[in-house]
Amino acid sequence: MTDPSQPPRSNPPGAPRWAKVSAIVVGVLILLAVVVKLTGLGGDHGPGRHMGNGDTASTGVTVIQTSSGHPAAYAPEGHR
Predict the structure, then answer these.
(1) Which regions of 1-80 does DSSP assign to beta strands (E)?
(2) DSSP structure class, residue 50
């Protein structure tokens, strides 16, 4: 039963403090990430960073050729 001495609430209760603080922290982190990305302060990130100096990526396979120049066998890197 409701207490007749208290008037009924007209507004629902607000969000808890931890939810407000978490939302502010996430918002600041997103804003910081956008600023770093737009200004270039974060450096050169991405998949191209690991490709080297424009060389093609190594497949990890070495072709062993006979003296006549025909491929004789394929050996994975490290098993030569």
Answers:
(1) 61-65, 71-76
(2) G
Burial class (CB in 10 A: 0-12, 13-18, 19+), 62: middle
| 57-64: average pLDDT | 62
Give the distance from CA 27 to its chain's centroid.
17
N- to C-terminal Cα separation, the chain = 83
30 vs 8: CA distance, rounded Å:
40
Q: Which two tokens stand for residue 6?
A: 């208290």
Quote the CA–CA distance of 64 and 80 in Å, as a whole number: 9
pTM of the model: 0.46
The mean pLDDT of 63-70, rounded to a whole number, is: 66
